[in-house]
Amino acid sequence: MRLTVKKNIDLEITSEKFAAPLFNVINNNREHLSEFLPWVENMQSVEHLREYLRNCELLYEERKEVSFIILFNENPVGRIGLHHLDLQDRIGSIGYWLDKSMGGQSIMTQ
Question: Which of 7, 66, 70, 98 is deepest in the core (most CB within 10 A)?
Fold first, then answer.
């Protein structure tokens, strides 16, 4: 599934096909992301991230979460998702992160 936010911003459903380029974003933003996200230090290889993304795909199939890769000009720059979904009570948590160099471009507000 792919959603177009605006001309140069798209959201594509989380998939392990993004493991390598997304790992590079994480690796280049470790200090920045670690301030907010405790899992960053556990992502030490593309394979670690690939396993995590596979789990995200399973959670989507189980209707427990839905998450997307944020694409800017077709390049992965972050993720956004609804987690801990309880469809009966209609609640969940939103989480997102973005490459620090992409700040100030209204990507998250869009």
Answer: 70
